TrEMBL record:
Region (Disordered): 102-170
Xref: PANTHER family: SI:CH211-262H13.3-RELATED (PTHR34153:SF2), SI:CH211-262H13.3-RELATED-RELATED (PTHR34153)
Composition bias, Polar residues: 160-170
Designated name of the protein: DUF4806 domain-containing protein
Pfam families the record matches: DUF4806 (PF16064)
Domain of life: Eukaryota
Domain spans labelled DUF4806: 254-321
Amino acid sequence: MSFAVVKFISENSDTDEEIVSEIPISWLTKNNTFCKWPPEKYCSLYISRSFPPEENWIEYPVAVEYICDTLTEAKQKAKGNIEVEDVGRGCRTIKPLEYFSPAEEEEKARGQRKKEGKTVSKKDNPNSTERNYHADFMTFLNREANSEETNPIINEDSGSDSLSEQDQTSNLDLQPAVAINNIQLKSIEGTGSLISGHSSPTTSTVKDDQMKKFDEKLDSICNFLATLKLDLEEIKEKMDTMTPQQKFEIEKFPFQPPFKSLTEIEELEQYLSIEEQRKCYIQFLRNIGGNDHKDYTTRICKSLLTNTVAELCSWLGRKNNFAVGHLQCTNIAFGVVHHKTRCSRKEFETVFSEWLRHAKQRRLREKN
């Protein structure tokens, strides 16, 4: 993999600073006049691994300085550690080079803007002419509070039962009040503390909005609970008025499988002709259970047929065998297995047929 040493062309032609970096040659685009640059976090890793460029990388204008065969050689040339004879262009003096970093350039510009817009704080400049409004405000409040002690206050229990309008007005004027930012502050008799005559309009508005939202949510919850209560009462009334359905009690399965003769299979077919009795058979098969369709089908076969009877049976009844593929007991068994394992009819038939076909081998193995 070849590498290129490129010089990034800055938009500000006034600066003499040169930014050079080594890059994989595959990063060059547009006839080697631009190069794609990865995110700063993975820049060195991508260069060392010659990572192919991605579409979302930013393109920068560059001028190719050198083409190198190895990354080490490209790094040396990028850092300026090269021989004078390799410099070319009249053996110009090599200036100290810096690695290009878009993030660093943006950080420098941001720092410059902050430096230009920085203001001197009051601590750094004690001779500042700016007024300390907080100190002025506290001085003003203390002066007003102290003035209350010198002003006469009319006692409510003095002589007359009522005061004239002029006396009430003069009495109100004796208590100092300060209006600041639409907040009226009144001094409390006997103390220098202040209380707020009324809260800020902005604060009261926010509280009112919050209370309105809370009330709306509370109303919606109450409405939902009321609706739910009505629905439950309606359901209860319907359940009380409905005639209770007679529940089917599963009777004990009258047969004792596995069947030892074909006659018992025929008796089972007659038994399954009644719907209520068919439910007993279905419950019997469900109690057998199984892990998958193969295990479930095999367990049903073992529960229904002995190996001796299974030798006489086949799925289609070929070679004068007893056909079981069309029987009700077999179809119901498939329905139970399909409901449990979602197997197909073909899969059920394959497992059932294979079990019947190996019945003789199982019988001989058990005898020995």
